[in-house]
# Entry
Amino acid sequence: MPEHLTKETFLQKVFNYEQNKDWKFEGEIPALIDFYADWCGPCKIIAPILEELAEEYKGQINIYKVNTEEEQELAGAFGIRSIPSLLFIPLNEQPQMAAGALPKDALKDIIEKVLLKTEVVN
# Structure
């Protein structure tokens, strides 16, 4: 199951933007963060997909969820304008944002190429 982050857990596990101006990922393995809201239809569509991916990539990546209604400061810090917005965080590179409800194969493709740096063989 994806873990829900509050501002406090986000600062510990992802990025302490209060202490660091430059990006410094706090995690041990790559991460994917879903910025969502409970009322958002497309967010509800990708929620079960993210749960499946959390199981498939257990131990390889962390999947987190941030409720933009409850954590407005986090949403503001990342300039979230539309939801769902997905933040892909490789270990030693800058994070990349994707907006919209992406299909599972597209998400897997990004996870493999951006987060795990493997070539996808079809």
Q: What stands out?
A: The chain has a mean pLDDT of 94. Strands lie at 3-4, 31-36, 62-67, 85-89, 96-99. The chain has one domain: 3-14+27-115.
